[in-house]
Design goal:
about 70% helix; 23 helices; two-stranded antiparallel ribbon; single chain; about 500 residues; globular; mainly alpha
Length: about 500
Amino acid sequence: MTRYYFHIFKESLYGRKLLFFLVLSCLYFSLTMNFSMSPDVWVLVQLQNTFFYIFIFFPLYGLLFYPIFLTKNSFLLIRAITKKRYITAKVLNITLFNSLIFGSIFLIIKFISIVYMNNDVSFDPGQNIELFQADILRIFNDYRQSAIAILIYASVGFSFMVSLLVIFRELVGKTVAYVFYIMMYALIVWSTRPGFFDFFSNDKYEVFKINTYIILPVTTIAEQDISLVNYFVVKWAILFLLLGIILFIYVTRNNFGKYTFFDKLFISPKIVLSAVLFVVGYLSLFYIYSSDIIELFSLYSYGYFFPPQLIWLMTYFLFIPFVLSIRFSQLSEGINFLVIRCHTLKFWRRTCLITVLKYVGIHLSILMIVLSIFINLSGVTMDGLLFKSIILNFLEIIFITITYLLIYFQSSSTIMSFLFCLCGYLVITLPLSFVKWLPFALSSVIRADDIGYNLVIMMFIGMILIEVYAIIYSTKMSIKFGRIENIE
């Protein structure tokens, strides 16, 4: 399938447009030669050249190549058969093409440096270049390794971004996809300016600075003394998680927004009303109990046993699993008929997951509204720390709900599923070092501040995506005597 896609767009991608782009790039690099630098340093400077990316690379890529990836080919759609094969072929060809174009740019720069530049440099390259050289040598063993690492980082990061936008095209149309590319370009330009998103991006990984996903921030890595492997893993993990979320929305988009038969079973007016009553009642009692609603985000840490706070914690996070346990118990006699109605067990699981996520969305919306009211009543100002704490809190609610579903689909027991979630919160009371990394109560401000907010957010998103994949694509099951059993 990937090879078929390559042959269809071979002429449009790898023909005159690519040649024009490379010739123009060659002309630019030939005009920016600096004989006060050694050839190896000049190559690295050009690979990190923000001016080239902003004024030549991104505009030309958006005009010449990006529209080709947005094109829908009827033969390709027919041959692909499934959405998964179609998107996989597109993503792989985007990665292949971007690897080729970045590799070609490197070869052009290297050729110019070998032919026209002299290794015996007698001029002073300037303070900025000297600092850049020092930072490079602090991170890498030599200039060649740094050039390869910078090239791979740029190629992978840009391929992820283009893949995200191309999948967006399948969701929202070509016009909006062009708008997203322009917005991405504007954010990259804006993020290169000093002071960009300092309010959110004061962490060492600069998560919100879009340009750092393509142009490796050598100075930041050297100053913060960050491991290069860790930096690559964090940045690529964020892009991979974003791509996974968009792919999940793309695959399940036809089911979202519809009020189906399953919505009537799992999102009844009584269940929604119970959510409203629980949220209002819980937050009111907690506000009376603590007189500070912000303490909701630091209910418990780990390694000690304090029953009052533990009860508040478990009541808050186990409400949705409790509601699901009651509903699944009421439907226990009709589960087989629901599976039959879905035709396949995989479709039943996916439909059930989507329906439960709709309910979680309603629950979180109610929670956000009521929580905002109590925050205003407390006179607390919304800042970056509080914003991150709310995100972590919501991610843990989603995580514990999907964990409950995963255990239920494997065991067919509401009791075992609920007890598993309950025991997770009891385990954090043990005075053991590994408990710090357990996902239960991980949204606590104390633990998040100790581990790192961005790392905790990525951990939650990663675990959620893994559990969703396990729910949809786990082993086949059979139905016996009103229960779903594993096939050995």
